[in-house]
Amino acid sequence: MTRLCESCGLPRAKGCNPLTHLCGKCAVSDTPAIITDCIITKDWGDSGDMIVLADMDKGATTVPIFHYYSDELHFHTWEFIGKTKAQAVRLFHQKDIEYLRS
Question: Is 84 helix (H, G, I), strand (E, B) or coil?
Answer without folding.
Answer: strand
